[in-house]
């Protein structure tokens, strides 16, 4: 319940519809709860990432903002999965 206003503010900061914040909370938090092992783990959005998304959405006017955000999200999550086991970083 505490993270809902933060998610709405992050959606506004990213330049997308704030109702997407509710969708991401309904999916993201249960998935994060399944894959974290600590009671003290906090899964939340960061303002720095929202500013990056806002810049990307503003610079790509002809692309759907949601597909752009999903593409950034998937590439950001798959890169550590590849780099980690390969011990590149």
From TrEMBL:
GO terms for cellular component: membrane. InterPro entries: SLC26A/SulP_dom. It is a multi-pass membrane protein. It comes from the Archaea. Residues 2-66 form the SLC26A/SulP transporter domain. It is found in: Membrane. Keywords: Membrane, Transmembrane, Transmembrane helix. Transmembrane segments: none annotated. It holds the Pfam family Sulfate_transp. This is SLC26A/SulP transporter domain-containing protein. It comes from Methanosarcina siciliae T4/M.
């Amino acid at each position: 319940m505490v993270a809902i206003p933060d998610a709405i503010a992050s959606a506004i900061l990213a330049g997308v519809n704030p109702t997407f914040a509710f969708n991401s909370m309904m999916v993201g938090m249960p998935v994060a709860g399944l894959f974290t092992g600590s009671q003290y783990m906090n899964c939340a959005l960061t303002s720095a990432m929202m500013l990056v998304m806002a810049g990307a959405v503003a610079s790509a006017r002809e692309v759907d903002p949601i597909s752009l955000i999903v593409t950034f999200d998937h590439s950001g999550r798959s890169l550590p999965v590849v780099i980690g086991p390969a011990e590149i970083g």
